[in-house]
Amino acid sequence: MAPRIGVYVCHCGGNISEVVDVKKVTESLGGQGDVVLIKDHEHVCSEVGQKLILNDIKENRLDRVVISACSPQFQGGTFMKTMEQAGLSPYVMEMANIREQCSWAHHGQTEQATSKAVDLTKMAIAKARLDEPLEKKVLPLGKRVLIIGGGIAGIQASLDLGDAGFEVYLVEKEPTIGGKMAQLSKTFPTEDCAACILSPKMADVPNNPNVRLMTSTEVKDISGYIGNYEVTVTRKPTYVDPDKCTCCDKCAEVCPVTVPNEYDEGLTTRKAIYLPSPIAVPNSYVLDDKSCLGLFPLACSKCKEVCEVDAINYDVYPREEKFTVDTIIVATGFDIFDAREKAVFGWGKYENVYNALEMERLLAHSGEGKPLKDLGNKVAFIQCVGSRDEQVGCEYCSRVCCMYATKLACLFNREHPGKEIYIFYTDLRAYGKGFEEYYKRAQSEGIKFIRGRVAEVVEDSETKKLMLRAEDTLTRKIIESEFDSVILSVGLRPNAGTQKIASMLGLSRSQDGFLKEAHLKFRPVDTLIEGVFLAGTVQGPKDIPDTVAQASAASSRAIRLMNKGEFEAEPIIAEVSKEMCVGCGVCAEVCAYGAIEMVSSADNEGVRTAVVNEFLCKGCGNCAAACRSGAVDVNGMSDHQISKMIEVM
Amino acid sequence: MDLQAQVRQAARKLLDDKQVDVVIGYEAADEPLRTTPCFIRDSQEVDRLVWNPFCEHNLAGYLQGRQDKAAVVAKGCDSRAIVVLINESQVQRDNITVIGVPCGGIVERKKIYRHLQGADIREAVLEGDVITVKGPGFSAELKVEDFLAECCKFCSHRNPVLFDIKIGEDVPEVDSKEQYHEVARLEGSSSEERWEFFKKELSKCVRCYACREACPLCYCKQCFTDQSLPAWVGKTDDISDTMAFHIMRAYHTTGRCVDCGNCERACPNDVQIRLLTKKIEKDVKELFGSEAGLEIGEKTSMMVYKENDPQDFIK
Amino acid sequence: MKTIAKNKMSALLDALIKKYQVFAPVQQDDLVVDFNAIRSGAEAYLEYNNSNEPVKKMFFPQSETLFTYTQGGSTETPELQPKQPRVIFGVRPCDTRSLALMDKVFDGPDFQDPYYLEKRKNTTIFTLACNNPRNNCFCSSLGYGPFFQKDTDVFMVDLGEKYLLEPITAAGTKIVKGLPGLEDAREKELSRRKALEKEAAGKITKKVDLKNLPEKLSGIFDHPVWDEIHEKCIGCGVCTYFCPTCHCFDIVDETRDDQGRRVRVWDSCMYPSFTQEASGHNPRETGKERMRQRLMHKFKYFVDNYDEVACVGCGRCMNNCPVGSDLVQVIEKINNLKREDVYE
Amino acid sequence: MQEQPENWEPRIIAFLCSWCSYAGADLAGVSRCQYPPNIRVIKLPCSGRANPFYIIKSLQQGCDGVLISGCHPGECHYSSGNYYARRRFAIMKRLLEYIGVEEGRVHFSWVSASEGEKFAKVVSEVTEAVRKLGPARRLVKNEFESGATI
Asked: In Å, what is the CA distance from C37 to each residue of A527, B201, C23?
């Protein structure tokens, strides 16, 4: 059946008609069979104008409306509502922009502006002719959220969501939550003890009735989409029942295996059965089956023998667990830069070169009165190790190193007054609240800040002292000096495990390797994948307050979606013709939203074709332009429509 | 053992061991200087298989959409096409066995006919690198290397990049520096000259679609030329439509074309369509630094982007 | 019977050009010859083997506007009659023969195609005997041969120094009468003609036996041999577009805004779109059905309808097939099917 | 420069992404930036929507010029559509010019929603470039006119 199109050309109270000859436009449009009526009006968008349209739709059984007026970005919404009022799909209305892009831009050129207005209106008619009455799609949403990563970001997000009544699954691959923050000595600029402020928060997690904590657990697979994420996790056994363990330490005492302690960055040792950290949550010993003498077959059972509460059970195995969530927050954090990549500084080779996280642990221990090492009398910090350094592929600033080095220097200085402490920096960035003041204070306390990049560190093989060479770029003097210890302020790198999660979810990375947010300014915690959010350093280097803020932001964005109970999707989306699709996958590859899946399904005779997820697709049409077969098109913006618009030319 | 014997031996073993259902290779054609694709299912028939510089077809196209287990004889370019087909999920790696044969270049039959001014060649015998051709009242000895197809002359991948069975030793790769000389020559001429050249060249096209069908990477279920909503390209032999067809067909090979020359070889009217695909191949290399069909798992150049891709042409 | 010295041929053509639009073989490059309208006799190149494309396009062009229309109703049919009477000069007997076969389709008892016929009526054909059949030629298996002189207006033979001209039809006689430079043929020349005919026949080595083919084909519609025959076919249209007897077409509308034209364009039974239905269903779903259709049409259905096979043995389908598919071998394969394999 | 028919005005088709360039064109109007009235705009969601067929079809239809405009790199509303578009256009533009379509028929630009003035400038430049070239002849399909095509 031929469409019945009504066309309205607006004068816009002279805005249009002072340049464009509106009468002539209406006259030039005639002669096309399915254009049932053409009218002009002083203000089509006015009450009167809209009533006119409503009335015409009813009386003339119009099923397409073309409005030749202002920009659709200006009044498009108004007319879409009018269509709905008339009981029509808002997507069978087209606008020709003869104001912003015609009358306002072509003053005094009535003839040409009029002819342009005619063409633009004809193009809108050509498009409207092929419009289909699309409808919005609605997806019911539940209140389940998966949080990947139990660092401070994951903890904050879990608590926010749990408190708000959402069902949280917090997955952490390590045996305890707490992440990198749990390893820190104190935090800048306030110097409050990291463990002291973190441990209550950590303890809140298992106590929150809405949070299901899964430590020693890795995400194996995620499929599906918003509202329907099917998550498969692998739960690794710890062999110790946390509910029974009393942390009496007897098991560790008898354990014959000693290995480097990760929590202390290998500066101390632990046993094969151990407490992951003094503030571990769950607060329980765990058995590390990789360093244990052997469980299959059992080589030693000393720990089990001494356990008075019978908390140890060797007969447990990794198991998979599946659950479904509606949204996901990725908070997989960062890794520190591996300073071995910067071989000129000798980390891992020279005895007295430490990275900053090692320094954190050294200070944490000495702070407790149990010093591990003597760092000597002259200590240097080298900044920007693995940051702002194209040689190692990190162009970005890691944002926290200036301040943590200042903090470590201050703490060390206060513990060992009278020592010489140098910080060799590129630029000193003290941009946060209280940062500049902290920097000033450090200077006043005698920490020497030298603006200059250190070229190399050379160890005296006899004395193990370290020779540093740098240029003080402020005084233009070459500094060559011997130090007892050197601390490398290593930068932040994307966590090694993040890529796996990113691939599962179809998240893209920024050039720096951190996960990419949907919009750097306006959607900093959203991703392009609907229902997936980022929190913390997984998105880029940041300090604790920013991480916490972002975690709360991510929670709030997740709540924004789930609280409504449903998700509404625009109908202007891609559509795949199964008959034409050859399954090459180029569409899925170029889709930024992971909205296209290549499926070989039984109802398609096992043939692999692209399938568009109508809730994830944003209708950008990149897939359609990429498809060589012409199998992908965009509803309401089809190739056929565009080709007919071109034909008007 | 010569390469042909090795191909036959490999085929025999694959069929006898029931590793494959069919071996796709070449057999002699009735016409001199030609071979024709053949499908061997019985090991008794492997002696039909031949290997010589007349094995001009890219057999990769026969793999697309197969349900059975197939072995295929593949030269360098054929193997690259197979890689692209695998990467585009048109061929399942597990279902195919690639019999890789290093290739010294393929003879372009029409060059010989041109050289002999259209002589009526009734017989051709290849011995070593010399082809002896005979016809009513004449005979001539020709060297293979003098009649290599254009795409073979500067081929940068004569040895298969993917194979399960390798026949013979790798041949030395040739200097491919000059491979774009024809494109470069055209680029050096004026817009007007290029237009006249391509208009004339493409007006020879009769829209038989042999180029498209011969291309192992043209595998759409329905080509844009046959689509009607919208009908991007008219069906008549109007030169504008013919040019539009060739522009878009070439464009669709962007970052995928392996320059096997099958399209141009298939053309009954000798339209130099490789000049289009070769231009794109050159641009892809220049602009995006990529080359098609070298590695399983690689993404073709239109599937990816770099944030710093060249954009000096954009205002 | 007349002769003309080769060096006078150009003048003869010039004389024809004054009254007719003359199409003659013209060298396109050092290998390819095709029929073009010539403006001077010197352009003609008669020392050719055969034209790359058959002459059918002179009567049944690849695209032909049937009529134009505008939205609102008016249609306009183009002028069907050529502006000038035409001569096609130097056509090989196989192509001449193909026109006789095409006539059966476009000028049948029930239907006459004006677009084809107006051109046909206004065209005089000069056939040039084929002294040098090529390795893919097999016209002698089709009941005629390289010196076949029916179905034409004037028959010519290249005698070496001269051409022999023999008017066949009244139109031929009339046209030859007015041509300059002709001499009466001598006995010696007529015997030379005979010798050349024999020599030409001897050059044809490809042979097919068509005697029982239609009957055999009718029994093997579902035979697995088709799987084998089509297997290497890539489904292009070369064999049909270059076939002098293939005449299938599609009718398409080309529109732009409010105007349109209806065009007849060549189509090929080898294309999937040839039988694609609007529903998406395709009765000839794979290359096998399409290959079968092509051969059935040529060697069975056409025979059923017109008592002739729709093949002239010119060999173009084999010359041009991108994958070297060999029609003669295919027919042989079918002929060799054992009786028990063929069911009624 | 070829001879131009009297009163000839170039007809230029423009494909603008809706988030940046179309909004930029709106801003040009709102700011009353004046530019030549020769363009006819088709709004696309993203420059990544622009199938190279649009360019070919436009040229076949006799458009004297084609402009495609999207968001600046890194500002695509759909994150990366313009990056893909950029690759497609780079290849297509070079191919068209190689085949003999005059340089200056097909143009690309990045215009953001805040660049009304830039939009007006781009359109003026494009119109001027096309005007210099004269009416499009190459690749134009003249199926409704008698005589030879192209």
From this structure: 66, 19, 4
Q: Annotate D10-29 with DSSP letters as a single string.
A: --EEEEEETTTHHHHHHHHH
Closest Cα in chain C, distance from residue A645 (Å): 9
Residue of C nearest to D62 (CA): C256
Q: Nearest CA to C10 among C179, C129, C149?
A: C179
**CB-CB neighbors (< 8 A) of D142 in chain B:** 240
Query: A487 forms bridges with which residues in the sheet?
Result: A354, A381
Q: What is the pTM assigned to this prediction? A: 0.85
Grouping H, G, I as helix, E, B as strand and the rest as coil, residue A147 is strand
> pLDDT grade, residue D142 (50/70/90)?
confident
pLDDT tens-place string over residues D42-79: 999 999 999 999 999 999 999 999 999 999 998 888 88
- Tokens 């510089």 correspond to B53
Alpha carbon distance B200, A502 (integer Å) = 52
Helix axes B274-288, B181-188, angle to 10 degrees: 90
D100, part of any domain: yes
Domains delineated in chain A: 5-136 (3.40.50), 144-234+321-333+498-565 (3.50.50.60), 237-317 (3.30.70), 335-493 (3.50.50.60), 570-647 (3.30.70.20)
Average of per-residue pLDDT values in chain B? 95
Alpha helices in A60-97 (DSSP H): 72-85
- Domain count for chain D: 1
Look up the domain containing D38 and give its range.
33-133
Q: What are phi and psi of B115, to 5 degrees?
A: -55, -40
Partner residue facing B238 (CB), from D73, D103, D141: D141
Residues 256-285 of C with CB under 8 A from D: 256, 259, 261
Of residues D56, D13, D123, the one with CA closest to residue A116: D13
What residues does D93 pair with on adjacent strands? none
Report d(CA B132, CA B139) in Å as an integer. Answer: 7
Tens-place pLDDT, residues A95-129: 999 999 999 999 999 999 999 999 999 999 999 99
The three-class DSSP label of residue A451 is strand
Q: In b/e form, how buried is each residue of A375-399, taking b as 16+ CB within 10 angstroms?
A: bbebbbbbbbbbbbbeebebebbbb
Q: Is C283 exposed, middle or buried (0-12, 13-18, 19+ CB in 10 A)?
A: exposed
DSSP track, A403-426: HHHHHHHHHHHHHSTT-EEEEEES
Q: For the beta carbon of residue C7, count every other beta carbon within 10 angstroms.
A: 10
ω into residue B216 within 30 of 0, thus cis? no
Q: D39 CB contacts (<8 Å, ≥6 apart)?
A: A116, D12, D13, D14, D67, D123, D126, D127
Instruction: Note the ipTM here.
Output: 0.93
Asked whether the beta carbons of residue B303 and residue A630 sit closer than 8 angstroms, the reply is no
pLDDT mean across residues, chain C: 93
Q: Look at C261 and D61 and tell me if their CB atoms are within 8 Å.
A: no
A647 interaction partners in chain D (CB closer than 8 Å): 61
Residues in B lying within 8 Å of C, measured between beta carbons: 29-32, 34-39, 57, 61-62, 110, 113-114, 117-118, 120-122, 136, 204, 206-210, 212-214, 222, 226, 234-238, 262, 265-266, 268-270
Task: Dump the DSSP string for A485-530.
Answer: EEEEEE-EEE-TTHHHHHHHHT--B-TTSSBPPSBTTTBSSB-SST
Helices (runs of H) and strands (runs of E) counted in chain A: 16, 34
For residue D126, being part of any structural domain is answered with yes
- C-beta of residue B259 within 8 angstroms of C-beta of residue B77: yes
Helices (H) and strands (E) in chain C, counts: 12, 12
* Average pLDDT value for residue range C113-128: 96
